[in-house]
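WARN retry 2 of 3 for item q-0093 after timeout on previous attempt; input resubmitted unchanged.
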Amino acid sequence: MTGRVLVVEDDEDIADVLRRSLRQEGHEVRSAGDGERA
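OK item q-0093 returned
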């Protein structure tokens, strides 16, 4: 099952790893650097 995921992470390196991993699993990924931007 795939879906849409919002990654909210202020550490860009961690956010990048999460985005890549989730995309490899087939998810549509969006990201924001903090809760305000999300």
